[in-house]
Amino acid sequence: MEQFTVTGMSCAACSARVEKAVSKVEGVTSCSVSLLTNSMGVEGNAPEAKIIQAVEEAGYGAAPKGAKPEGEGSAQTAQEEQLRDHETPVLKKRLLASIGFLAVLMYLSMGHMMWNWPLPAILEDNHVAMGLIQLLLTTIIMVINQKFFISGFKSLVHGAPNMDTLVALGSSAAFVYSTYALFAMTDAQMRNDSVKVMSYMHEFYFESAAMILTLITIGKMLEARSKGKTTDALKSLMKLAPKTAVILRDGQETTVSISQVKKGDIFVVRPGENIPVDGVVLEGDSAVDEAALTGESIPVDKEKGDSVSAATLNQSGFLRCEATRVGEDTTLSQIIHMVSDAAATKAPIAKVADRVSGIFVPVVIIIAVLTILGWLLAGQSVGFALARGISVLVISCPCALGLATPVAIMVGNGMGAKHGIMFKTAVSLEETGKTEIVALDKTGTITNGDPRVTDLIPVEGITEEELLYYASACEGPSEHPLAKAVMACAEEKQTKKTKVSQFKALPGNGLQAICGDAVLLGGNYTFISSQTAVPDQLRMQSEKLAEEGKTPLFFAKDKKILGIIAVADVMKEDSPKAIRELQNMGLRVVMLTGDNERTARAIGARAGVDEVIAGVLPQEKENVIRSLKQKGKVVMVGDGINDAPALTRADIGMAIGAGTDIAIDAADVVLMKSRLLDVPAAIRLSRATLRNIHENLFWAFFYNTIGIPLAAGLMIPLFHWELNPMFGAAAMSLSSFCVVTNALRLNLFRMYDAGKDKKIKRKKKTEEQKMTKTMNIEGMMCGHCEARVKKSLEALPQVSEAIVSHEAGTAVVTLSEEVSDEILKKTVEDQDYKVTAIVNGQLQNN
User: Fold this and answer.
1) Within 10 Å of residue 254's Cβ, how many Cβ atoms?
2) E-state strands within 160-284
């Protein structure tokens, strides 16, 4: 995605106009504009110059995002500069100047007229002088706030009126009519018509014109300040990036700018310093605080061979490291890009507001004109009718509609980033909360993915130390993961080491080695029982261990059994709690694993999942996800390595524990920590963000639905409610501020608090009828043939599932839509098998 900074936008109508203009450029496949961050994300192969030209022709400005400013060596500085709140200081100056002149204007127009406040003698009975001073003060305030008029009328000329157009039209109408009244009053005074003079005095709306501009500026400033706070998470991430690094050149330590560090450079980090770039430790050990990236408060021990990430804090020891990722490739930069990209994308729910915003301003202008004409036809004065029309223009707020979604998305995304939960797009943040089924990969997700010794069971006459001594001696030369678990246990218990000779792996999952004069044997029950007698009690214990999901390893010395060491992939401490939380949220939790049925069910029972799908090979996970999707929206949680097809197939793919490789293309959400509790937290945050968006949209629609009729004077005949244009402007100012402030409440949301979880109501799926066809196939000889036929059939878009059996010589194909027998036949025969018949089956209801 190519990103641009867009200038000149003031409301949702502006962003819709830019989006429409850029989408028409040849080569642009998608375009999304964010009013919140004044950014635009464009996908496709359109030239940069043509995109910028399209924006400029629409009446706005554009420049590539992240371009390096002159004299700066890093794009990071440019990004920080773009995120800095430039609007608030400018608006503050405008506001202070406006208030100064408005105070004098209000004293003259309201203070003296309504409460008889004293005036200089020269103005006491000089109504024309009073009017001229009001005209002058209003003109000054209009010049101070000229941006409304420039932007508003420019947009009107381009045929895309925006919020500034409404303000400019309302203020101009009040000013022009008041100026006309002033000249008419001057004429009346020259004719000594005191009645007409006083009549025209009451037709002055100079204070309304000035007050409208000042109040809208107040609203804009409050909105700008609040909008600045929504990007705090992103700005704090950028501040973490170190500016310099100490690298070794010719044996000397040299401090250089971070942009000068290259891959392969050797850098040093002392206690209390931030690690400058991603790297691997060559020398030293230390505790490193990674809270900035993962949200984990407990420091992580690092030693030779471990990886370290930029912006993490070295707490205790001296480290010498080699740079592996620099510049835009570091983990921190990837996180910043991910948060920034998510802000530049658009959530599906935002498109509703965009469609309304696109026609909102023209409709409001039409309503204002009809309001003026309606009151004139009803016999009211021009001043009264004009006041109602101006009220309609200034109370209408397309900004609230345009900001309702992006501010909530930005705050929600920032909240996730603080806790190591990275949503790649606004779509993923919105859709995660709609999950109905959570599919969890077992290894590395529910379990640690690192086998450990769980039980030491020696036979009578043998101590645990002896069992572990001979077992570690036998397993020492092996590279098997289970052998490593035994060796790790021996090292932890400081078991004496010994060397063995003639080590060999034997058929039937067994090991043999010579230790001194003794022959050591190790392996599973089948292997050991073929070499020596295994007591029934020990066999029963091994079966019990297997039922618990553990792998029992038997060891013998000189064909005499020593005992059992049980090894298991230990479950993460937080896994059962996370699964309970998911279930309490009304979600169905499914565990996928390649383990055998018995082991899988044992682990599933301990974890507390609703369903276990065992014996699933990595390449088969995608088919499992496909079938689960027929039952509801699916989130697939995996380690992002061999789960890529399944992560892509799921409605939302979550890569867990991917802190060192965050840019996993297959995943929609990346969980930096290896904690399963982040899965319910991500769903909880998504639901809270969606709820906040609904609140914002409700307020925006409700405000305009109530405000416009009130401003138009429809309530006057019923309740005698008459809205002054000044109060309309105040209401408009506050509406956007309320929307942004409500979104900022998300910063207080406790995403790890399961106390307020609510079960979602699952939508009852409409019954889908599916056709099955049975194909008789000749030539299939083995499981490989089955897999080939299955893969080719399921590649057809109309086929939802194919169950193939080489023994029966059949393929039962389930169809989601009609497909001809010729296509099915050709698909199989292209794989060099012969189709002898195709029989139509029954219709199935799902």
Assistant:
1) 12
2) 244-249, 252-257, 266-269, 278-283
Confidence of residue 418 (pLDDT cuts 50, 70, 90): confident
pLDDT of 369 reads 92
* 45-48 own/partner pairs: CB under 8 Å, 24+ apart: 48/2
Task: Give how far the C-alpha of residue 321 lies from the chain's centroid of Cα atoms, to the nearest Å.
Answer: 32
Residue 166 carries which side chain, given as an amino acid letter?
L
Q: What is the DSSP string of 87-118?
A: HHHHHHHHHHHHHHHHHHHHIIIIIHHHH---
441 labelled catalytic? yes
Residue 767 in contact with residue 845, Cβ under 8 Å?
yes
Contacts of 228 (CB under 8 A, 6+ apart): 85, 87, 88
Give alpha helix (H) positions in 524-638.
Answer: 525-531, 536-547, 575-584, 597-607, 621-628
Q: If pLDDT is split at 50, 70 and 90, which confidence band does 766 have?
A: very low
Q: Amino acid identity, residue 626?
A: R
- Average pLDDT in the chain: 82
Does the structure show a pLDDT above 90 at 76? no
Q: Which two tokens stand for residue 636?
A: 């697939």
Q: 652-661 long-range CB contacts below 8 Å, 24 or more apart?
A: 652/428, 652/431, 652/432, 652/435, 654/679, 654/682, 656/444, 656/445, 657/444, 657/445, 659/290, 659/293, 659/294, 659/309, 659/331, 659/420, 660/307, 660/309, 660/331
Q: What's the number of CA atoms in the CB half-sphere (13 Å) around residue 671?
A: 24
**Better-predicted residue by pLDDT, 531 or 346:** 531
DSSP state letters, 450-514:
EEEEEEEEEPTT--HHHHHHHHHHHHTT---HHHHHHHHHHHHTTPPP---EEEEEETTTEEEEE
Longest dimension (CA), the chain: 133
Instruction: Report d(CA 499, CA 519) in Å as an integer.
Output: 13
Question: Cα–Cα distance between 210 and 105 in angstroms, integer?
Answer: 8
Cα–Cα distance between 328 and 338 in angstroms, integer? 12
Q: How many helices (H) and strands (E) does the chain have?
A: 30, 30
Secondary structure in 3-state letters for 281-340: EEECCEEEECHHHHCCCCCEEECCCCEECCCCEECCCCEEEEEEECHHHCHHHHHHHHHH
Of 679, 76, 648, 41, the C-alpha closest to 335 is 76
Total residue count of the chain as it appears in this document: 846
pLDDT, residue 563, reads 93
Given 278, 289, 341, 441, which residue is catalytic? Answer: 441
For 592, the 3-state DSSP assignment is: strand
CA distance 474 to 15: 70
Name residues whose C-beta falls within 8 Å of residue 322's C-beta, 6 or more positions apart in sequence.
264, 265, 266, 267, 279, 280, 282
Residue of 412, 442, 253 whose CA lies nearest to 339: 412
